[in-house]
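Hi C.,

You asked whether I'd gotten around to modeling the 196-residue construct. I have! Everything is below, sequence then structure, no commentary in between.
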Amino acid sequence: MYPAEELRSRLRDALRPAPHLRSEPGRRLAAVLIPVLAAGAEASVVFTRRTETLTRHPGEISFPGGLVDPGEDLPHAVLREAEEELGLLASDVELLGTLEPVHTHVSGILVVPFVGMLWEDPRFTPNPAEIAEVLKFPLRDLAEVGGERDFEYAGREFRTFVYDMEGSVIWGATGRILWAFIEMLRDSGVPVREGA
């Protein structure tokens, strides 16, 4: 893996500075943050496990984020949500750009993923009403285990990107966003796997 400064430079070159969205009346927008923690020897990605009491996607692993408020711009929304969910201050996050938006199949929301660097390991203060656990996984490990496969949930089987991190299973829209992020890194020449 590249040193953090070089990783940041390559991410800035590869990401869109702003999302490319077509105007659709009534469309529900959400913004999520892919927090890349660059404080250690190798980059890690931060996820949240949602509480079981939430009405949407209870217990699932996701990126911090949520619906955009009326009149709110996307960068403000993603930083607001990161603070509400994890206690991350806007000054803790350096937004580098966005990936292509992703449609959620179940809730019909268009999700805009932002990539942000965390230069110091922040003291997360998760909102207990929304977040059951904060998870950090090395980027190299995520690239090793992820792939597209058949997955069963609530009695239905479908094809999706799945990352099984020792029992913490990332799938669905979060899995698709993570796959797009890792593929973007590979296309940019970032060695995210052993021997790459």
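If it helps when you're writing up: The chain has one domain: 4-19+28-143+172-187.

Thanks,
B.
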